[in-house]
Amino acid sequence: MTDSSFHPVLLILWFGLAVLVCVRSCREPAPYGRYASDAEGRSVASKWGWVIMESPTVLVMGAMFLIGEYNNTPPAYAFLAIWMLHYIQRTFVYPFLRRDEDKRMPWSIVISGVVFNVFNAYLNGRWIFHFSGGYPAGWLTDPRFVIGAIVFVAGYAINRHADYVLHRLRRNGEADYSIPQGGLYRWVSCPNYLGEIIEWTGWAIATWSWAGLAFAVWTAANLAPRAWSYHEWYHERFADYPAERRALLPLIW
Ligand SMILES: NC(=O)c1ccc[n+]([C@@H]2O[C@H](COP(=O)([O-])OP(=O)(O)OC[C@H]3O[C@@H](n4cnc5c(N)ncnc54)[C@H](OP(=O)(O)O)[C@@H]3O)[C@@H](O)[C@H]2O)c1
Fold first, then answer.
1. Residues 65-96, buried b or exposed e (16+ Cβ, 10 A)?
2. What is the C-alpha to C-alpha distance for residues 11 and 6, in angstroms, rounded to an integer?
3. Deepest in the core among 21, 171, 173, 188, taking most CB within 10 A?
């Protein structure tokens, strides 16, 4: 099977897999963070787990850019910059901001994260820099790109701020959990996940591609059920948890 026939087949499988991931996450949240358990077998220090798990996003996207036939255009550089803006921070900065010194991540999670990131970066990068046939220079002023980029930046800001609030909760060395306050935490339990979903929805719009859409669907399939689990967990854990706060969507859900 050649690369050109493998790509669309993988894309179809990717959408199907997102449904399975959603079902699995609804039944049982992935065992890391507050759901980490010794029963999951061998593990690695959480921050190094994040670095290993996220590295393919930078490496594979970089490789797709280099080998793509249509990499030397303003839209190609713009997409590379947007992707790297998110993933260089997520891979090499974010893990060291997390205040979870004693936390470990099972290798099963790290490996599944690596597999996801390799295929996802391949699907998106190969499309943008090669199979798309190249985005025209005028794409940067196309309403799809402009709206998608604005949505992406809004999601990025929400995600980064929400993660920052979480880091600050443990600024005095606490290891336990407390109720996050401020920003979108006023409205939802997981604004970091909301921001992430908004970001990749923006990416799907800006790239106007099935690969981008698959990534946005995967992100929602993975994070929406986890947001619901966190929301219920907060209510069980804290008797004074704000009643008006929703799980993921302000005023709705
Ligand atoms: N694109 C995707 O599909 C995808 C998938 C997963 C994650 N992500 C992104 O990766 C980032 C991290 O995800 P995550 O699942 O690790 O987020 P998370 O569970 O919210 O945890 C983030 C950090 O904050 C700490 N924390 C969370 N709630 C806390 C509280 N109430 N009090 C004190 N500390 C708290 C966690 O500690 P503990 O580790 O001790 O719980 C962890 O260090 C997020 O920005 C998320 O959007 C993206």
1. beebeebebebbebbbebbbebbebbbeebbe
2. 9
3. 188
118 lines ligand 1 (CB under 6 A): no
Gyration radius from the chain CA atoms = 19
Query: What is the number of structural domains in the chain?
Result: 1
In-domain check, residue 243: no
Over residues 163-178, the pLDDT tens digits come to: 999 999 998 888 899 9
Model pLDDT for residues 86-142, shown as the tens digit of each residue: 999 999 999 999 998 788 999 999 999 999 999 999 999 999 999 999 999 999 999
- Full domain range(s) for residue 10: 3-237
Contact 180 CB / ligand 1 (< 6 Å): yes
- Whether 253 is covered by a domain: the verdict is no
**At 184, which amino acid appears?**
L
Counting every residue written for the chain, the total comes to 253
Neighbours of 211 (CB within 10 A): 25
With 0.85 as the threshold, say if the pTM is over it.
yes
- Answer yes or no: is 252 within a domain: no
